[in-house]
Amino acid sequence: MPWDILLIFFVLGVIVPWRGRARLKELLAKPRVEPAERLSLYCSTIAFQWVAVAVAGWRAWAHEFTAAQLGLAVPHRFRLIAITVVGAVLIVTLQWLNLRRMGRSASPLRGPLQALAERILPQSPIEMIPFFALAVTAGLCEEFLYRGFATAALSRAGLPATLVVVVSSVLFGMAHLYQGRPGFISTTVLGLLLGVSRVVLGSLVPVAVWHIGVDVLAGIAGPRYLIKSKEVSDASLAL
Description:
It contains 9 helices and no strands. The protein has one domain (3-238). The protein is mainly alpha-helical.
């Protein structure tokens, strides 16, 4: 595997997890996070992800990765659209049910989850717009990086499809280590689902839409179910 591709994998597997955990540790050390700090977090994350995609896309182009290898093709367009819509409804419904279940849970894990939600999820209508931009960015950029670029590079290196999906999913989970062990596990499982779907369908379009749906719903329903604050609940219901 070329050195520049290996360097990108190093960034995805080491720098991104370290950066996420360091930033969250800084946020959790504060008694509360001000709206301006959340907006700064959203904007810096958006910028970082698009820069990462630009670099990965540049190197993929330099190594002559095809659109099909990167999952940028759209085969069987009408069937793909139907699968995208049906899959989005199912995965968003499951995400909503899971958030509602966690909101009602008395598990000790709920405390750290609430602390995380209070610091990174939008808590006012003003914060919703940049958070939605972040959700769209994450859906597009992370799917390109993990299910597009990483899948193409690992496949070209000769790994079997099963191992490609597993490795890319673990990298995806590691990028969310700031959510703790439960977050890493759940995100890796989600990555496996998205990775298999990307390989089977041959396109990033459905998985990107599903990813965006999951993140958008987290911004809408997450504050309502995970943050026990009357002000946040009222703001969420007003939406």
